[in-house]
Amino acid sequence: MGEDLDLLLREADRKKAELAEKLELAPDALEADRERFLFASVYHNNAIEGNSLSAAEVQSVLTNDEVIAGKPLSDHLAVIGYRDAIKLGEYYAKQKRHISEHEIRNLHYRMLITNQDISGTYRTYNLMIHGHRPTSYEKVAYKMLQLAESRPPEHTHPIEAAAFFHLRLEKIHPFADGNGRVGRLIINIMLEQAGYPSVIVNLEDKPGYYAALNAYDGLDGNPQIKPMQLFLAELVNRQFDELLAL
């Protein structure tokens, strides 16, 4: 797996350099691609969590403020909140803002408009997720401070660093809801800050994504980082391929 990961990282760097040599898209084409990516990101990130709105319905909600008959209001608010959190994440990326606890909680607050009683605040109870017990709530604040202040070892590839940060965040599971969605936003902020493209974990990617998360849970006493790094490297290469094809 290590050799496969090294190969994918080198391939991503090669595509990054190739993309930098290409002429920039015309403004209208660039805007259209960004809009397409935004709609797809909002749809897939919410669909993974069980949102019932289709891709076309998500686009109608975000473009026309349409209310889809027969669909929960909470599903509408979830896509609006995620759209707004993406915009905030884009701002953090452009500003090269260090992702501290403040930024993480702000992203969660902006995203979770369906339940503002808990948005932007750490959970105050323990929970079980698919047989896994995340960090006890009493330790969440300390663990989050540790995570936010940590720095990857020198020469760590940005894709590896983003994947490891994501694993640690999801292991802590600081919020009562929305951990995965916030975590995937932070992956994209970290990638953009390092000059790599934002990625989308498609609904079809869900089994591989959860397998990579579970590999780090360490339920078998052997937590693994590489599966998530490999998964993310594949997503980055896929996104580079799409950008190079434009």
CATH architecture group name: Orthogonal Bundle
Q: What is the domain total for the residues?
A: 1
How do the helices and strands follow one another from N- to C-terminus?
HHHHHHHHHH
Q: Classify the secondary structure makeup into a structural class.
A: mainly alpha
From the spread of the alpha carbons, the general shape counts as globular
Task: Report the uncertain regions.
Answer: none
- Report the top-level CATH class: Mainly Alpha
Separate helix tally: 10
Could you estimate the helical fraction of the residues in percent?
Answer: 55-70%
In CATH, the topology is named: Fic-like fold
By DSSP, the count of extended strands is 0
Summarize the structure.
With 246 residues, the chain is mostly helical. 64% of the residues lie in helices and 0% in strands.
Helix and strand arrangement:
Blueprint: H1 2-21, H2 27-47, H3 55-64, H4 73-94, H5 101-111, H6 137-149, H7 158-172, H8 179-193, H9 206-217, H10 226-244
Descriptors:
Fic-like fold; mainly alpha; globular; 246 residues
What does this structure look like?
This protein is an all-alpha fold and 246 residues long. It has a single domain (2-244), classed as Orthogonal Bundle (Fic-like fold). It is built from ten helices and no strands. Helix 1 (2-21) packs parallel to helix 10 (226-244) and helix 7 (158-172) crosses helix 10.
